[in-house]
């Protein structure tokens, strides 16, 4: 995924990965992953990336090469360019997995969350000829059309904003979509890192609907994304993961998201946090006038 240019530079060529919705914008999850891989390559096998914080400066496109400049300090600083700087990152590394912070399962309420087969995938709801409104069909179609992950939400009504509530916690079983499952992943963390940025604006929409903004999110972007690694091996990158996410709406335009990713044995692999901004449909239209 990355070509080594020299000891402090790495390059990735397009076509790059778009987000889960139709977009010409580079997927933030890819920028996070590229920074993680560059930090790993700099430190070879001597170090484990335990924490990574990425700040997004401007959107990247899907075709121009990505160049990552690395400044080997403590912690390691990375600058991702696409003609211009599109993100900067700081990576903290440790020498052993024993130094990773373990997140105890008893602190997380997963006991009432079923197995993957207890919840149908989104494709199932598209295939229904009755019992599912056109609104539901339209709401989930874009997730299915460009799916990076197979998605099995705990509640389809919550997922498509039919049951709006404040303080909602999104819980979904996800695994890499079938079309990508022939890939070989030398590092199993690649998949959960990509997943960490996948559905971040779904609970934002739910919160905004519950707070009385019926248009929800028309446009939005993350300002930063941080991951904390709890587990680096002992799980199947092609297996199912629990994606758990909640958000706080600080204002109509500013949101904070925090989540966890668990493997099938329900061990926590990653904690992630994001701060983002959103625009309603009216605001997005007025900004173009």
Automatic annotation (TrEMBL):
Gene3D superfamilies in UniProt: Acyl-CoA thioesterase, double hotdog domain
Biological processes, Gene Ontology terms: acyl-CoA metabolic process; fatty acid catabolic process
GO molecular function, one term: fatty acyl-CoA hydrolase activity
GO CC field: peroxisomal matrix
Protein family membership: Belongs to the C/M/P thioester hydrolase family.
Name the record gives this protein: Thioesterase-like superfamily domain-containing protein
Species annotation: Ditylenchus destructor
Lineage: Eukaryota, Metazoa, Ecdysozoa, Nematoda, Chromadorea
